[in-house]
Amino acid sequence: MGEAKRLSGKPVADQLTEENQKRAWEMRQQGIVPTLAILRVGEDTGDLAYERGAMKRAEKTGVEVRQVTFPESVTQAELLRAIEQLNQDEKVDGVLLLRPLPHHVDEKYICEQLDPAKDVDGITSGSMAGVFMDTGRGFPPCTAQACMEMLDYYGEDLTGKKVTVMGRSLVIGKPVAMMAMKRNATVTVLHSRTRREDFAKAGQEADVVIAAMGRAKMVGPGQLGHDQIILDVGINEDEDGGLCGDVDYEAVWPGAAMITPVPGGVGSVTTAVLMKHVLQAAGRRMG
Fold first, then answer.
1. Of the residues 100, 116, 132, which one is the last residue of a structural domain?
2. How far apart, in whole angstroms, are the C-alpha atoms of residue 261 and residue 10?
3. What residues contact residue 29 under an 8 Å CB cut-off, 6+ apart?
């Protein structure tokens, strides 16, 4: 096996954006202005960075953005009123609620008040039911969908493949496992309580590994096999203050068939997926 192929997210995001631009233009020709509301509480640097990225992608795509911001001291009642107004606003197709929310509000309850039809980042149980039951209601989380978009772009069919998902969160692990199963993969889900020997065995035997544990460089050659496709969803800070994934990229690279970098991999596709979801929501509204 030669050198691993670096699975860059940029061409994937570029192709999605091109498709999204065409769809947005078609909608505008029919008098529909696809609109995303971004609801942010406080000034978290990560939230601000993602919001800027989403707004930049929206401008490039042809999606309008409405910013709804509150100070860290916002009350639960104020947030609920804002969500109710966005639910009822016929001009808003999708709502992105940036999290985590301040500790003094009930985040789970707040999220559940969002209309699943406008839940473009898969945070409600209605959206999750759509992913698990294939109801066509709501949307999967953008990062989970971005993994599937990466595989599609690079021509990787999951039918009959062994897929090992490292992580069981509702944001990535569980939905991406269901989406891989929908594509006829045989899926194993690993987590923090998986026995070490079982973790390594499942990682080594996989055709495709999706790492989403949220721990910097925790996945190394000992947990992986050879000639695998590795999607690294983690975004962590390394010992030098830089960004790194859940996979020890430099150590794993020599034995991999294909691997996503961090940054520049799966994460760079998420805002393009977000716009795709907004346009799909607008399309459903058009009927």
1. 116
2. 11
3. none
Q: DSSP 3-state assignment of 138? A: coil
pLDDT at 77 exceeding the cut of 60: yes
| Cross-strand bridge partners of residue 68 | 39
Per residue in 144-201, pLDDT (tens digit) is 999 999 999 999 999 999 999 999 999 999 999 999 999 999 999 999 999 999 999 9
Closest CA to 111 of 214, 191, 41: 41
Report which secondary-structure segment, H or E, holds 173: helix 173-182
151 lies in the same domain as 241: yes
185 found inside a domain: yes
Q: 35 lies in a domain?
A: yes
How do 162-166 and 186-190 pair as beta strands? parallel
Sheet arrangement for strand 64-70: 64-70, 35-41, 94-97
Half-sphere exposure of 110 (CA within 13 A, CB side): 26
* Three-state secondary structure string covering 10-48: HHHHHHHHHHHHHHHHHHHHCCCCCEEEEEEECCCHHHH
The reported pTM is 0.95
Give the total number of structural domains in the chain: 2
What pLDDT digit, counting tens, does each position of 6-43 carry? 999 999 999 999 999 999 999 999 999 999 999 999 99
